[in-house]
Amino acid sequence: MRKKLVAGNWKMHGNLKENEALLGALIAGLSEPENKASYAVCVPYPYLTLTQSKLRGSAIKWGAQNVSQYEKGAYTGEVSVSMLNDFGCEFVIVGHSERRMLYGESNKMVAEKYLAAQHAGLIPILCVGETLEQRDSGTTKQIIDEQLKAVISLAGVDSLADAVIAYEPVWAIGTGKTATPQQAQDIHHFIRLTIAQQNAEIASDLTILYGGSVKANNAAELFVMPDIDGGLIGGASLVAEDFIAICQAAN
Ligand code: PEP
């Protein structure tokens, strides 16, 4: 039985005061000991110290939104997996569509980041998803297959035993246009089937999140679908009561 996961992606939002208050509100709202789901927040790098000190011992895990594929060296502005380890990160998002589109991250680069994260004991949240043009031209499954295969060919299918996949249709991210539960389920099922062709057990145990304008009022109908194991939440993760309500929908 897969456990649901709700992970917040704060992106480049907040400041010290706001983020401290947000963490405090999340701790207070998500302290029920009978929680069935897991929760996490992926915060901007400068707030990892704060996040670690506030969330240690709470029901909420934490992580980062990106990481270098390189171990160390002359990579100005980059952050390594061992640096994330220093701050107790459990998760790191790799291949978010904003990284792919705005910063030119290729399938190969995303696969390298995924592998680097796993080598350091971090759980990569691997984002895959199609643009509107790709959906309209009927290439959604082909695009997602290529995104998955790049990772599987570098890291092996067994690596997915220690990873999370997030299906995030690009047209639904930050647009308020959520995929319908059935649209999302169809692609989640496709992802699981694609992986099952190589390892049925890993596919059946794999956590696949949906991301793209998940809100308090649509989370439950998405999370009830058989192949949707929770959500990667952008905008709504910045408002404590909304994120808590989405977490409760996963319970
Ligand atoms: C995201 O950035 O991963 C995301 C899903 O954003 P939003 O929830 O705002 O669409």
Count of distinct strands: 8
Count, helices: 11
How would you classify the quaternary structure? single chain
Spatial strand arrangement across the major sheet: 1-2-3-4-5-6-7-8
Distance between the termini: 14 Å
CATH architecture: Alpha-Beta Barrel
Radius of gyration over C-alpha positions, nearest whole angstrom: 17 Å
* Secondary-structure content class: alpha/beta
The helix-strand sequence is EHEHEHEHHEHHEHHEHEH
Low-confidence stretches: none
Q: How many domain regions?
A: 1
Helix coverage percent: 40-55%
User: What ligands can be seen in this structure?
Assistant: phosphoenolpyruvate
How is the CATH topology named?
Answer: TIM Barrel
Summarize the biggest pleated sheet: 8 strands, parallel, barrel
